[in-house]
Amino acid sequence: MIIDGKVISQSLKDAMKIEVDALAEQYGRRPCLMVIIVGDNPASRSYVRGKIKATEYCGFDGHLVELPEDVSEATLLAEIDKLNNDPLVDGILVQLPLPKHISEDKVIAAISAEKDVDGFHPENVARLWLNQHCILPCTPKGIIELLDQAGVEMAGKKAVVIGRSNIVGKPVAKLLLDRNATVTIAHSRTKDLAAVCREADILVAAVGRAKMVTAEYVKPGAAVIDVGINRTEDGKLVGDVDYEAVLPVAGAITPVPGGVGPMTITMLMRNTIECFLNRMNNK
Ligand code: NAD
User: Fold this and answer.
1) Contact 40, 70 (CB under 8 A)
2) pLDDT of residue 282
3) Cα–Cα distance for residue pair 230/66, rounded to 1 Å
4) CATH homologous superfamily, domain 138-259
5) At the topology level of CATH, where does 27-114 sit?
6) Closest protein CA for atom 40 of ligand 1
7) pLDDT of 185
8) Which of 52, 170, 214, 276 has its CA 20 to 30 A from that of 269?
9) What are the beta bridge partners of residue 159?
10) Where in the chain is the domain with CATH 3.40.50.10860?
11) How many whole angstroms from 15 Cα to the centroid of ligand 1?
């Protein structure tokens, strides 16, 4: 079974569009997401275009704040502070990566935790690991949603996550654990990675190496979630999984493009609504 992230994403966005109209009626305003981009990195520009498009599709307020590549850290922090204090702003996202002269850690920590739609603020990360109410990071949240929508049972299953980054590997592992899977986190120092992965009922690859997960990594019938985004020499977008080779072995698989990617943006929309509701109901 191919888990079509595009189709699942579209139906979730359609439902949110209706929900947002109802929220506007109920609360007298729409959820508002502000996206900040620094500089002209083409990949960042393209990601941000997708986020703004989804924002408009779902009927949110908000817009893009564009700052030049050489903007000072102080100016960026002041812009964030302004948005933190704006009662009509529910979500703030600063597109990463940032130019080298700006500390990403400082910027992430500067965004008010209640408006941190990316779920990267240390307070949200800590709350995730403490099982407290928090804003979940979008890609891990999207992966769990994909598994749910595909009807993949997680409880009691063995899950292997390849990759231990703070934004994907570790939070995905935590969310799978919360769904009562038995989770192994594999990484670049894992010995006999293929054998470790072959144990998995659910295999999540979040590495950033084209086609590293071959058929010998996959237990027949396993659900394979490909988070990787890589460009081949001829410019084609591919994941971490050798899709053609793994497709006949896997029970379910996400394609790249069209799998986890669209879900990440859709979960950003979901988080914006959640931030809006948290703020409106805390008043
Ligand atoms: P990262 O570079 O921070 O982490 C990569 C991880 O892979 C590390 O923990 C490392 O230990 C592990 N690793 C590296 N080489 C390995 C090897 N040979 N064997 C086993 N493990 C190895 O990357 P990240 O930010 O976690 O992103 C991972 C991939 O997911 C990238 O391709 C990124 O572009 C993609 N990504 C996609 C989305 C999406 O929405 N689809 C979102 C975020 C990241």
Assistant:
1) no
2) 85
3) 26
4) NAD(P)-binding Rossmann-like Domain (3.40.50.720)
5) Rossmann fold (3.40.50)
6) 261
7) 98
8) 170
9) 183, 202
10) 27-114
11) 31
What lies within 8 Å, CB to CB, of 281 at 6+ separation is none
- Choosing from 118, 162, 165 the residue with most ligand 1 atoms within 8 A of its CB, the one to mutate for a pocket test is 165
The closest-lying atom of ligand 1 relative to the alpha carbon of residue 208 is: 32
**Average pLDDT per block of 10 residues along the chain, 283 residues long:** 97 98 98 98 94 97 96 98 98 98 98 98 98 98 98 98 98 98 98 98 98 98 98 93 98 98 97 97 78
Residue 151, token pair as written in the block: 């009807």
In the chain, CATH 3.40.50.720 sits at 138-259
Index of the ligand 1 atom closest to the CA of residue 239 = 32
Write the DSSP string, the chain: -B--HHHHHHHHHHHHHHHHHHHHHHHSS--BEEEEEES--HHHHHHHHHHHHHHHHHT-B--EEEE-TT--HHHHHHHHHHHHT-TT--EEEEPSSPPTTS-HHHHHHHS-GGGBTTS-SHHHHHHHHTT-S-PPPHHHHHHHHHHHHTT---TT-EEEEE---TTTHHHHHHHHHHTT-EEEEE-TT-TTHHHHHHT-SEEEE-S--TT-B-GGG--TT-EEEE---EE-TTS-EE-SB-HHHHTTT-SEE--SSSSHHHHHHHHHHHHHHHHHHHHHHH-
User: Which residue of 170, 207, 214 sits with most ligand 1 atoms within 8 Å of its CB, as the best mutation to test the pocket?
Assistant: 207
* Catalytically active residues, by annotation: 51, 95, 118
Q: Report helix angle 260-282 to 138-149, nearest 10.
A: 110
